[in-house]
Amino acid sequence: MNLGKTRINRLYHIGITSTQLYLEALKAAIVEAKRGKDVRLYEIVISALHEIVPDDPQATLDSVWTDRRAREVKAETDRLEQELKGYKNNLIKESIRMGCEDLGRHYHLIGDLSNAIKAYSKEREFVQTPAHIVIMNMHLMHVSIDQGNWLSVQSSVQKLRSLSQGSSSSSSEIDRAQPKLSAAMGLAQMATGNYKDAASSFLATDQRMLQAKLDDPNDPEAFNEILTPNDVAVYGGLCALASMDRQELQSRVLDNSSFRSYLELEPHIRRAISFFVSSKYSSCLEILESYKADYLLDLYLHRHVNEIYFRVRSKSIVQYFIPFSCVTLTALASAFNTDETTIERTLVDMIGSGTLDARIDLEKRVLLAKQVDERQEVHEEALSMAKEYERTLQLRLLRMEIINAGLEVKNPKGPSMMSKDSLTSPRGGSGLAGDVFMAMDSKGKGKGRNGSVFS
Fold it and tell me: At residue 450, does pLDDT exceed 50?
């Protein structure tokens, strides 16, 4: 269960994307919005409901509430700004820090994210303890997630992790925040399409998040203002399926005692991974397809569902096709519980992206593996090696001729700006050897600076 603005944003996303749950989701979002201070978010939700069902009584803007809430917000903003000015005049660092934090939290609650970032950033020069640094960066990370500024999220996490390398007190503070940092980093990496690193971050999330009281916003282990343990299980499992091979899935996911506790919250993800590891690809894809509609309603996951599913399906087809030289499209469609048109379109996309090294015979409706002439490859490799040996030998003979002709320039004693290799390299254009090499004629003979001729 999510709390705060994330709860409203998730309900709003469901309301504008679901064809069945839109009415209940938008009405629930309106109720949640009126409990908060973000007037603009309330107006956005009301506008979405009014476009869908204009005759619904709840689709009418409550102007009395908006006016009252706007006055309260302005009064609170003025009060906090005046208090902060007073703290700055008194030059008490801790009071200034707390004033900046209160103002940043207020801006965050009313939806003014840019000013929230500014307020939290001003707090930086007044922090005095590792705990204050952790709190400040956690606030910045939270606002950046709401902004969708994923680079800033990763930057905040990296700053906190680098801080843990300092004093023991800093390390203990960071250790307590580790589950939140891993989950936030995984979310940011998934949002930028870096599924392999996202999977690693989610897999590294400590089990302490599972012990949090989700209905208590003051619980230090709770992170449900952003993600719940169920989200960690789903995001981590899907990113791992999209980016890891069967051996990695077995060792890093299924055998991971820490992440196994998360997978127990979403057993279908664990079953899908187990089926993939066991080469039961159709069962794996069938489970994923049955939950696809739910994932498309997820606030953070919906943009990546199609890409993740395509990668999992592509890996399954590649693994299935390895033992065969040719497979009919009918057999492939049957193996993956789909129709020929869909499997053909998938194969075309895979071949076009370079994921599958094969070709399709549309006349015979057959997928053919590319025939590799191993004998020719061995011959080409041997010829390439012979040419490289011949070139190396010619260069060494050339250097011997240069030395015999007395054209070698020895390094002077002490440090030198030019290395010996630059003076004697046959391909160098600035050294003496380079001049000799460039002076060679087509008969393999060259002329030095002193007029001596060598072959």
Answer: no
The gap between the terminal CA atoms of the chain, to the nearest Å, is 84
Q: Is 192 helix (H, G, I), strand (E, B) or coil?
A: coil
CA–CA gap between residue 318 and residue 282 (Å, rounded): 13
**Cβ distance 287 to 275 under 8 Å?**
yes
DSSP for 381-424?
A: HHHHHHHHHHHHHHHHHHHHHHHHTT-PPPPPSS--SS-HHHHH
The one-letter amino acid at 65 = W
Burial level of 25, CB count in 10 A (0-12/13-18/19+)?
Answer: buried
Instruction: List helix spans (H) across 53-149.
Output: 63-90, 93-109, 113-122, 130-147
- Token pair of 418, please? 């030019």
Pinpoint the alpha helices (H) of 123-194. 130-147, 150-163, 168-176, 178-191
User: What amino acid occupies position 51?
Assistant: E
C-alpha to C-alpha distance for 86 and 131, rounded to whole angstroms: 24
User: CA-to-CA distance for 90 and 70, rounded, in angstroms?
Assistant: 31
Report pTM: 0.76
**Residue-wise pLDDT tens digits, 246-299:** 999 999 999 998 899 999 999 999 999 999 999 898 899 999 999 999 999 999
DSSP string over 2-53: --HHHHHHHHHHHHHH-SSSHHHHHHHHHHHHHHSS-HHHHHHHHHHHHHH-
Would you state the structure tokens that stand for residue 180, as one six-digit string?
């939140």
Please give the order of strands across the beta sheet that includes 366-369.
326-328, 366-369, 358-361
DSSP 8-class letter at 223: -
Structure tokens at 346: 């998938």
Residues 6+ apart with CB under 8 A from 66: 39, 42, 43
Q: Which residues pair with 359 in a beta bridge?
A: 368
Can you say how many angstroms the Cα of residue 59 is from the centroid of all Cα atoms in its chain? 38
Give dist(CA 191, CA 154) in Å, integer.
11
> Residue 341: pLDDT above 70?
yes
452 pLDDT higher than 60? no
Angle between helices 150-163 and 130-147 (to 10 degrees): 160
Q: Is 56 left (phi over 0), alpha (psi -120 to 50) or beta?
A: beta
Helix, strand, or coil (residue 159): helix
Residue from 239, 312, 323, 311 nearest 281 by CA: 312
Rounded to the nearest angstrom, the gap between the alpha carbon of residue 37 and the centroid of all alpha carbons in its chain is: 32
**What is the separation of C-alpha 420 from the centre of its chain, rounded to a whole number of angstroms?**
46
Per-residue CA distances from 296 to 13, 14, 19, 34, 184 (Å):
10, 9, 12, 26, 20
